Every structure is written in structure tokens, then in C-alpha cells.
Amino acid sequence: MSCSPSSSSASEDEDEGMDSYRKGGYHAVRIGDSFSGGRYIAQRKLGWGEFSTVWLAYDTRSSGFVALKIQKSAPQFAQAALHEIEILSAIADGDPSNSKYVVRLIDHFKHTGPNGQHLCMVLEFLGDSLLHLVKYNRYKGLELNKVREICKCILTGLDYLHKELGLIHTDLKLENVLLLSTINATKDPIRSGTAPILERPEGIPNGGTTMNIIEKKLKQRARRAAARISNRRASMGGVGGGPKANRSLDGIDLRCKVVDFGNACWADKQFAQEIQTRQYRAPEVILQSGYSFSADMWSFACIVFELATGEMMFTPKGGQGFSEDEDHLAMMMELLGKMPRKIANGGARSKDYFDKYGDLKRIRRLKHGSLEKLLIDKFRFSEIDSHEFAKFLCPLLDFDPENRPTAQQCLQHPWLNVKSLNQTEVKSESGVEKVNVGMGNLHMKGGGK
Q1: Is 391 annotated as a binding residue?
Q2: Which residues are catalytic?
Q3: pLDDT digits (tens, 9 = 90+) for 297-355
Q4: Which residue in 75, 275, 396, 415 has a CA-CA distance of 20 to 30 Å to 423?
Q5: What CATH number matches the domain at 126-188+251-418, 1.10.3210.10, 1.10.150.530, 1.25.40.80, 1.10.510.10?
Q6: Which fold has domain 24-125?
Q7: pTM assigned to the model
């Protein structure tokens, strides 16, 4: 569950429904409701997840906007919240300057309501998720220099989590990385200069949450109807049938932070064998051969590919005679080559999928390719871009987790620090003007002839 203004655990056309607003479930929040002795005032809902809802709130003590995450009240949800608070507290304590590109916990407290006692977390307000950014870009893939900018933030966060704290995120994906601000400036309460709501507006009944959901459902129906009409017109060659123009990402702040530590664990205190969202899951997790920080690096590689192409790297599906896991392993080997036999046969579940020779039992005919060829043929990368990009990604997708580079090593990779050949920089340092044109440097002393 992220704290983005556009986030949700499901599609944007869904809501959490009313069924979970009961004992042990969600707390019903109304605009203007106060929390923690009046310190936080609810402004509007940002999103929801299986365990919680997240609200934009105004902090009357700091005079700033924050994200207020309100957990369901049942004991199992409270226990999950305590675990996340422990993780987030360690993250905040180790990063007093708030410079590591990881979401910051500001406060936490308990709130008692009609449905029970809810653990609440106050987090810094952040913007849209990387998934929203990819959607905004119409799934076309971002320019590589913009991908690099995002990579540096994520890797800085992972380096901090892995090396300094010993934490494995275990659920890295586009939804769990948020921009520092919103794509649409009007949705950012700070940039838009939104005046805070300090008391409950008149006319909002006690059933404000119910009314909000009903109104949202009506709007969803209207959007679906409009979409059907648009699709019908497009299929008939009418208005809206042409390709959409590319959107410019210039001016959007691409700095971002890693969020959602509900499933994170200490490297020496793992509590789940099956981690990661399916499309970002590492092979060692599928095979149950043990995992560590390198599982996060596999997920990171999947994120980077998705940012650069607009498509997921792996989208496995079960079929007749084979499972989703088997299809996933087959897709990996079609793109990355045959899995070494010691890796294929080294997990607790290896015998479910592989024979003693390291071949899949039920998917025998694989269509082998390469990442570099895929980038050229399908995504129209230039040969040099595909070659350099693949050199960055392929080590992260090594079947042997021990061989994958760390976040710190990735930060030193040439691809991440390359500059465009046509880039021109003019800087002034200590009375010396340095002009960089492509790969050449020309030094001119200030004031000289």
C-alpha cells in the first residue's frame, strides 16, 4: 500500500467497497476528522490496500501535509502494522537527513473508532507511483536518460537498505516506488498552494465515507460508458482512432523513493518463503532455494526494463499441463539462456519443475532469444543502446544470486553514468570555465585572452 495520490492495490476503477467497514476492518474517515489529539486533520483519500486506507492529512504542528495510513483493526492487521513500524523506524533513525530515497516515517499512534482500535502511521507525502508514470507515458517507455535518473534514486535506497540496515524489501515493483511530487501539479497540495481543511465541512453526513464510495461508483460507470463509446468510434475509424501523440516528461521531477515495507524483512529474520509480486519474482524464490538482497536486485532489473520499454519483462500464465511457475521459468530461460543445472536442481521445489538434467519437465520446446535482440527487434532500440543497456541489465538477471551485482556496484556501472554524445555542459569552477562537448574537454582560464 503506497501513499500516492493515485495509488491503490487494485485498478483505478475499483474501490475498497463497504464490506470491510466493520468490526476488525477499516476505520470510516470523513473529511475534517481529527487524529492524535487533533494534530492531524483528514483532507482526502489517497488510496487503499488490503490492510489499510491512506489519507492526505494536514499536520497542525508542522503546518504541512502528510500521508496518514490507517490499518484495519483486527489483530493480524495490527501485528502487520507493528512490524512495518519497526522497519520504518529503523529506516528513519538511520537516515536523519532524509537523503536515502526511502519513505520517511514521521509518527505513529493508535486511534479508537466504532470498528476497533487502529494502528496509524504518518508518512511524508509523496507523489505518483512509477506505474502511474508509465501509464501517463502511454506505455511507450521512457527516454534512457530519464530511466537512469530514476535508477540512481532506487539504487541509492537499496544500497542503504541492504548494506547499512540489512533489510530486504521483498516486494519491489513500479507501484512501490513513488515520485517526490505528483505529475499533475494541481494534485500536489504543496505545489498547488491548497489551503488545508481544518474542520469538518458543513453538509457532510456521518455516512460521508459511504456517500463517497457511491459517488465514486457512479463516476466509474460514467467513465466506462465513455470508454466504450470511444472504443466503438475507434473500431469504426472515427474520432479517436488515430495514434496518440507522445507525452513530454520534461519538467516532471523524476526523483523518487522506495515505499511499502509491509513485507520487508531483516536478512537474518526471514518469515516467508514466497515473496515478491509474480512478475518481479526471482528464480530462487520460485525454486525455494533461499533468498537474500540479490532477490531485490532481480526485481530492480524488471523495473528498469519496464521503465525503458513500457512492458513487463515476464508475464507468465498457467496453461494446459503446466503451471504459472513453470511458464515463468521457461520465459526466463528463453530470454536469458539455460539455467545452470546446479541452480535448477538446487531448490526445495526443483523436482516439481526440472528433471535431473536441468530441463523443464513439462515445457520442452523453448524459443531462445536474447535481451539485446529483443530490445532491437521489438522495442526499436539502436544497436548501441541495446548493447549498453543489456550490459547493465543482464548481470542483475544472473540465475545464480551470488553473481548478481549489489546496489552499490550498480551505482558505479558505466551505463548509469554515461552522458549523451550531443550533451553540452558549461560549468564554472574556481575561475576555470570547463566546456564539455561530447567526449572532449576544452579548458579556458577565466579572464584570459
Answers
A1: no
A2: 171
A3: 999 999 999 999 999 999 999 998 999 999 999 999 999 999 999 999 999 999 999 99
A4: 396
A5: 1.10.510.10
A6: Phosphorylase Kinase; domain 1 (3.30.200)
A7: 0.85
